Amino acid sequence: MTTEVSLRDVRETDLPIFFEHQLDPDATSMAAFPARDWDALVAHWTKIMSHVNISVKTINFDGQVAGNIVSWEQSGEREVGYWIGKQCWGKGIATAALSQFLHHVKERPLFAHVVKHNVASIRVLQKCGFTISSKGRFSDAQGVPIEEFVLILT
C-alpha cells in the first residue's frame, strides 16, 4: 500500500478533473456507469457537496487529484463508492483511500455495490474488510443486464 494518499474536502476546482475521469470509456465500462455531461456532473456534485448526510472527499496522490470517495444513505442503508482516475489504477490508491475513509465514516454496516466484472474494485473492498453478502442484477442505460455483488462491512 502506498503512503502518498490523502483525503481532503472536495473543492469546486476538483470538478473538471472528476469530469475527465468519468469520461474515460474504460472507466465507465469497468463501473458500468455512464458518463455525465458537464452540466449534469456539476448539478450532481453541487447536490452531493451540499447534503449534510453525504460524506465526500477528494483523493489526493502525490499532491494531485486521483479521484473521489463518497458515502450516502440509500434505501435505509449506508453505502460507499469511489472513482479513481485511470492514470492512477493499480497503485494501491483506492485501497489506501478507502482504508482512511473508513476511519471517517464509522456507521456500520456499510454496503458497496460492484459490478461482477470489476475484479479490482472487489479486491479493494475485500482488502478493507468487506465481504460479499449477495448477488444482484440491474440494467444499464441501454437495458443490458449487469450482474453485481453487494459487499458489506459489519
Task: Walk me through this protein's architecture.
- By secondary structure, the chain is an alpha+beta fold.
- The chain has a single domain, classed as 3-Layer(aba) Sandwich (Aminopeptidase).
- It has 5 helices and 7 strands.
- The protein has helices at 15-23, 25-31, 38-50, 93-104, 119-127; strands spanning 5-8, 55-61, 64-74, 77-84, 110-115, 131-139, 145-153.
- The chain has a 7-stranded mixed β-sheet with strand order 1-2-3-4-5-7-6, with helices on both faces.
- Strand 6 and strand 7 form a beta hairpin.
- It is globular.
- It starts with a strand and ends with a strand.
- Could you describe the largest sheet, including whether it forms a barrel? 7 strands, mixed
Look at the structure and name the CATH superfamily. Gcn5-related N-acetyltransferase (GNAT)
The CATH architecture comes to: 3-Layer(aba) Sandwich
The average pLDDT score comes to 95
CATH class: Alpha Beta
What form results from the Cα inertia axes?
A: globular
Spatial sequence of strands, sheet with the most strands: 1-2-3-4-5-7-6
SSE class:
alpha+beta
H/E element string?
Answer: EHHHEEEHEHEE
Strand content: 35-45%
Multimerization status: single chain
What is the tally of beta strands? Answer: 7
CATH topology: Aminopeptidase
